Amino acid sequence: MSSGERPTPRTGRGAASNPGGRFEPTTTAAVDDGWGSLEEPLPHLATEVRPEPARSIITRNQSPDIPFEQSINPYRGCEHGCIYCYARPSHAYVNLSPGLDFERKLFFKADAERLLTAELSQPGYRCRPIALGANTDPYQPIEKHYRVTRQILEVFERCHHPVTIITKGTLIERDLDLLQSLAADRLVSVAISLPTLDDALKRTLEPRAPSPAARLRVMGRLAAAGIPVGVMVAPVIPVLTDHELENVLDAAASAGASFANYVVLRLPYEVKDLFREWLAVHEPLKAEHVMSRMAALRGGHENDPRFGKRMAGIGIYADLLRQRFQIASRRLGLSERPVASLSTELFKPPAAPDAGNEIQLRLEL
Fold first, then answer.
1. Partner of 80 at 20 to 30 A CA spacing, among 88, 98, 111, 351?
2. What is the C-alpha radius of gyration for the chain, rounded to an integer number of angstroms?
């Protein structure tokens, strides 16, 4: 494929290619050998799912600009296929591509319930809210079959542990029973990720995620069920979605959101090239303008990883976004975070796995 030729998009996939990760010792490139093979229809790419062995399940966070100290990722990779996802580079750690591999070669925590129970039962464990949805969507399509997220919520409900959830998956409605039980004791809040109300843009930007209308419906059902729900306008993409900021907040508030936040587009590691490729395929006339605005947000660079800067950007454009968000949030009565903080006082450590068997054995002896 020549450098000036656009890659061919895959139906239902966000990435158009499968570049090697940054740890790979070799790289590959498609070259037209004259036999016309590059012009043939691309084969269908099925989703593959396999278990991921793990010795622990809770991840601790030390980043000062992230509002949680610990998180759980029920899955690795995400079938939603959002091209902008900052978690794509994590697939390089398992020798897979941040491109198409990230959205079709997925892993699930097969032993999540036992691992979580074991960690929460440790004598030194200190109860703090655990975030679901930090590096993968806990309600992506494969959750319908594997139910890892539901298993985790069942553990939280049994031991009265607080949890925050961020998702764009409407499958969360399946777990209303658990969420209502947790909400009754101030143990849960949910943020629905919604970067755009434009269906056509969503179809290429987030190809396997639910429609904006479906997310707003679920937001309303969560609110009606008494579950604190908010909206995460993320990412705000210069030129493509930034003009929608107020409209998204309006729609979310009307649906029942009580809090809101936003994050501007981040392009760490391989995401830079994947996003540029996506622009070339889907928004070629806006590509240069988008990247120019990105540079204005990032001090002249495509990405700025500094704490305190990476989420909102810097400069006049970033300041304008911040002011617009604050003005709209005040007008709509949206707070930055859930009004009521989550409770840690009701936590009851679960019995360690197999503890019952050990007690029974001692009684029999």
1. 111
2. 22
